[in-house]
Amino acid sequence: MRIKIKNDKIVQDVVGEIVEFPKYTTQVMNLANQNAQGTRPKVVGQMSELIKEFPNRSYSEWVAWYRQQRPNSIDQATDRVYDMVKKIEQSISLINKDLVRKWVEDLVLTKTFIGFCFQESILKTVSQRTWVNYRTATPEEESKGIDGYIGEIPVSIKPITYKTMSRLQEHIGVKIIYYEKVKDGIKIEYDF
């Protein structure tokens, strides 16, 4: 037998109450928190370690214990996130349909094109360093996971995070060039 326990049920069972948030507000607060870094360990503590140190079992004991250990953390995190929410609120007032159109065009047209072109830049750079020619893949080759050739070697170009994606079922039987986007360009890594 398989049973699914929904998150709301777990919260209800463990904490006793479910906090309801107005629609879209948690998305705005999550975005603000990402920018403000309000719940980072330096602000609220290393939660995985704190929960291990916690000597009791109940939620109310946890709340009291945490507040004793980190008395100002919730206030500091709240202030950081709230300040960023106010900045986002100001930014929203600058958004009109023309700005949304520019953003969509940048995402769909510019970033797609740049994403395709940086693959060619990677192929060109590796070929120059290995003293051979390069070429981009044909559509048929692309369907086999090949992005281009360095000399006679077929290669696939993947983000560095691809290395950690063990759940992927895809098997690419060619050499892989890994890339990582950094502030001022891209870093590449290859072994051939």
Number of domains: 2
Looking at the structure, what is the overall shape?
A: elongated
Strand order, biggest sheet?
1-2-3-4-5
Low-confidence stretches: none
Instruction: Write down the secondary-structure element order.
Output: HHHHHHHEHEEEE
Largest sheet: 5 strands, mixed
Would you kindly provide a brief summary of this structure?
The protein is α+β, with helices and mostly antiparallel strands and about 190 residues long. Helices cover about 50% and strands about 15% of the residues.
Task: For this entry, give a set of tags.
5 strands, alpha+beta, 2 domains, 192 residues
Can you describe what's shown?
The chain is built from eight helices and five strands. The mean pLDDT is about 90. It starts with 6 loop residues before the first helix and ends with a strand. The relative contact order is 0.07. It has two domains: about 5-90, no CATH class; about 95-190, no CATH class. Helix 2 (about 25-35) packs across helix 6 (about 75-90). The protein has helices at about 5-15, 25-35, 40-45, 45-55, 60-70, 75-90, 95-130, 140, and strands at about 135, 150, 155-160, 175-180, 185-190.
Write the layout of secondary structure elements.
Elements: H1 7-14, H2 25-36, H3 41-44, H4 47-53, H5 59-69, H6 73-92, H7 97-130, E1 134-136, H8 139-142, E2 148-150, E3 153-159, E4 175-182, E5 185-189
Parallel strand pairs: 3-4
Antiparallel strand pairs: 1-2, 2-3, 4-5
Helix pairs in contact: 2-6
